[in-house]
Amino acid sequence: MPSIPAAPVTCLQCGAVPARSTVQVCRRCGLRFGEAPPDFARLASCPVCYRDTDADGRLTSLASRGHRLDINAHIAEHDRFPVGDDEWLESLRVNDRIRVGRWSAPFDLVRRYLVTGVMDAGRNRLELHSAVLTAMAQVGRWGPGASVAGDQADWREARSAVEALMERYHRGRLERVG
């Protein structure tokens, strides 16, 4: 009697893990475990670094450039390759907001900006205007330490606070990795 091969560990479209080793089809999306998702599929996105999986449902390994990993293995790699100092950033969190200097802004949007360098909250982004978000947009456009003609004192102070936040967040990552 031929043995049934063990199912791969994850669905390459949604990242679901099979409940038992005999399960071969993902109950979320109906795709066989290990099978590349169809072209029209909505692919999984890493909640740590915000990268979307490639068309095959995998991401390049952070540890070994030649290897491709499913979303769950990629997320696990972030323990060794953090994107920044998330423990410190969480200490600045107040409910769903973050304190930056004397201002506050949506935590998720600020973290996404720190990780990606892009002020974008995704497709369903709310237009939120505050000194912190304006400062993030200005730092993204003109870079840290920029001198802006017609600058307002609040914006200059907010840019300095955002630049200090960025420097500290990424320094924590380098200390842990190095």
Structure described in brief:
With 178 residues, the chain is mostly helical. The chain has helices at residues 71-77, 86-91, 107-116, 131-142, 153-177; strands spanning 59-60, 68-69, 93-94, 97-100, 103-106.
Low-confidence stretches: 3-7, 121-128
Order of helix and strand elements from N to C terminus: EEHHEEEHHH
Number of helices: 5
The total count of strands amounts to: 5
Number of domains: 2
Structural class determined from secondary elements = mainly alpha
Indicate the overall shape. Answer: elongated
In round numbers, the mean pLDDT is: 80
Main pleated sheet: 3 strands, antiparallel
Query: Span from first to last CA?
Result: 53 Å
